Amino acid sequence: MRIVVLLVVVLAIVGCGKHADEELLVSAAASLTNAFGAMEIAFEEKHPETDVVLNLGGSASLREQILEGAPVDVFASANGSNMDQVVADEETFGEPRVFTVNLLQIAVPAGNPARVAGLEDFADEELLIGLCAEGVPCGDFAREVLANAGITPSIDTNEPDVRALLTKVEAGELDAAITYVTDVASVGGRVDGVEIPDAVNVAAEYPIAVLVRAADHGTAGAFIDFVLSQEGQAIMSEFGFTSP
């Protein structure tokens, strides 16, 4: 009996050793939270030796972390300008690749209590209006949409990333905000969406790249290949993103 117990313990230790795998640190835009959560699971099933660790936040903040020397393997940005700065500092290993596209949508609390009808309501000083901060992709894209529509918004808050902005809408602290289509869909009816006309909307292209200081360029590249694969694109589609 003692031998059997010892054998079980040894096998358990060996099994644990097999799971002490390499980490792949992926810094990804906050709007990718749900999609990349599913991507992490799917990739690890195919690569059990790799533990994907997601670092989620505003693309501008993630960019600064990279430029300050943070140990990141893969960077997935919600816009090209933040990636361009990383490329300019020679922090990428190979060329970035656009892996998905997102559109913007007006987000309002469930039931739309303020009866927000469209972009023109963003000029109403009596409403509580929120955008992502300037320099954050969702903030820059939102301002581009409003400029396309000829509207000067009355902004009450500028949030650091799209998730923070959406949380305030969901809590009823804002009457309206501009987020991504995928973010409105991600909260399962706790926030409603008001469409933005195609003529003024913006298609946000998301680039992804391996970084120079990646611990293993091969593993980092394999993750990007998976994101761009048919299976990876199907995952993105499940969360409302479209293929580039």
Textual characterization of the structure:
The chain is of the alpha/beta class and 244 residues long. It has 2 domains: 21-101 and 206-238, D-Maltodextrin-Binding Protein, domain 2; 102-203, D-Maltodextrin-Binding Protein, domain 2. Helices cover 40% and strands 23% of the residues. The chain has helices at residues 2-18, 33-46, 59-67, 80-88, 137-148, 162-170, 181-186, 217-228, 230-238, and strands at 22-29, 50-57, 74-76, 97-109, 129-132, 157-159, 176-180, 191-194, 203-210. Strands 1, 2, 3, 4, 5, 6, 7, 8 and 9 form a 9-stranded mixed sheet that branches. Helix 2 runs antiparallel to helix 9 (230-238) and helix 3 (59-67) runs parallel beside helix 4 (80-88). It starts with a helix and ends in a 6-residue tail after the last helix.
Mean pLDDT: 92
How many distinct domains?
Answer: 2
How many β-strand stretches?
9
**Low-pLDDT regions:** 1-18
**Helix content estimate:** 25-40%
How does the SSE layout of this entry go?
Elements: H1 2-18, E1 22-29, H2 33-46, E2 50-57, H3 59-67, E3 74-76, H4 80-88, E4 97-109, E5 129-132, H5 137-148, E6 157-159, H6 162-170, E7 176-180, H7 181-186, E8 191-194, E9 203-210, H8 217-228, H9 230-238
Parallel strand pairs: 1-2, 1-3, 5-6, 5-7
Antiparallel strand pairs: 3-9, 4-7, 4-8, 4-9
Helix pairs in contact: 2-9, 3-4
Summarize the structure.
By secondary structure, the protein is an alpha/beta fold. The chain is 40% helix and 23% strand. The protein has nine helices and nine strands.
